[in-house]
Amino acid sequence: MNGLVAADLVVTGTGTPAGPGWVEFAGGRVTGTGTGNPPREPDRLAAVVVPGFVDVHCHGGGGASFGAAPDASARAAAFHAAHGSTTVLASLVTRSPDDLAGAVRALGPLVDDGVVAGVHLEGPWLAASRCGAHDPGLLRDPDPAEIDPLLRTGTIAMVTLAPELPGGLDAISRVAASGAVAAVGHTAAGYDLTRRALDAGARAGTHLFNAMGPVHHRDPGPVAALLADPRTVVELITDGVHVHPALWDIVGRAAADRVAAVTDAMAAAGMPDGGYRLGDLDVQVTDGVARLPDGTIAGSTATADVLFRNVIAAHPGSRPEALDRAVAWTSTTPAALLGREDIGRLQPGSRADVVLLDADLGIETVLRAGVVVPPGGPASG
Ligand SMILES: [Zn+2]
User: Where, in this chain's numbering, is substrate bound (predicted)?
Assistant: First the structure.
């Protein structure tokens, strides 16, 4: 719980330029940070130190899915924690009303214990034409009779929905009023309707570009509306599969501090190629890419440390600039989206969530609230 970490490069996420420095913590909280030589002999040394990653879109990993089985949900959280995600939302894909309510109920104690930071409902209120790897037969219109009891559990941190559905804008208002993040996604909405969704309280775009209309110069679509709105955080799956890296920098320039890298990982993350399940659908993983039988990409097999390295590798600028962007995308911005001031940066009072990396940016040690996270399976990708 107590300790002192020193590194050649410390990136705090607070605006302090990356450089040699240290982080001290006690009782699971950061008690001090500084540049240059540490005030005493450090307990741990690393090449690079960054805040723990915050993944707001994650369905599972290490062979386990978030859902009705608490032990599987805990395994998925532990797998991602070992890869640096000291905070994850448990994302649930479209399920039947009973299955969805059951999964939310089962995840409640894990939210209370801080194993996961909340539940992200991705569906069932999604556009059939943009359903991706969601069972189209289980999609439905948002109905307060289903939404309100789910929101009242207090475990819902985020809801992805399509605003064009009947009741969609009202549902966004309800989600926002509950304190959860309403996110526009899996949607056939155009530019104007997306703007109305943001005015109704939506504050995020779920996996920008994926499962929404493209940018067209006479029909700019949801992507342009989300990028242009200074209130809005856009998720970006920087696994190198979902969105071409050429677009990452364009997004980064358009929405500087408003990008959250997300894994959208499913159970196969960290596991060999083969057959897996995502919700009620069969998924085949080949060369680390998860697809439905019809070829639709079905989530990722990435972990947050992979996203982090990818963002740095694709950055056209200097190493310190790349590190700043990667920390913003993987920690600071998603933490801010969740309204969490205690995570996402290394500053006095923050939870001591610290990722120690080697010179190649591979995970050396992960501390969560100052405690070493047991190592997990191999990173994929
Ligand atoms: Zn999705």
Answer: 133, 210-211, 218, 242, 297-299
Q: Which of 55, 229, 239, 264 is catalytic?
A: 264
pLDDT digits (tens, 9 = 90+) for 25-80: 999 999 999 999 999 999 999 999 999 999 999 999 999 999 999 999 999 999 99
Name the binding residues. 122, 133, 186, 207, 210-211, 218, 242, 297-299
CA distances in angstroms from 250 to 242, 253, 314, listed in the order given: 15, 5, 11
Question: What are the domain boundaries of the chain?
Answer: 3-49+355-372, 53-341
Amino acid at 269: A
Reported pTM: 0.97
How far, in Å, from the CA of 123 to the mean position of ligand 1?
A: 9
Phi, psi of 311 (to 5 degrees): -60, -40
Ligand 1 geometric centre to CA of 85 (Å): 19
Query: Which CATH code for domain 53-341?
Result: 3.20.20.140
Q: Which of 75, 87, 73, 62 minimizes the C-alpha distance to 369? A: 87
Q: What is the pLDDT of residues 168-209, one digit of tens each?
A: 999 999 999 999 999 999 999 999 999 999 999 999 999 999
Identify the CATH homologous superfamily for domain 3-49+355-372: Urease, subunit C, domain 1 (2.30.40.10)
The string of pLDDT tens digits covering residues 256-303 is 899 999 999 999 999 999 999 998 899 999 999 999 999 999 999 999
Please, is 27 exposed, middle or buried when counting C-beta atoms within 10 Å of its C-beta (0-12, 13-18, 19+)? exposed
For residue 208, report the distance from its CA to the centre of ligand 1, in Å: 10
Whether 264 sits among the annotated catalytic residues: the reply is yes
| Length in residues, the chain | 381
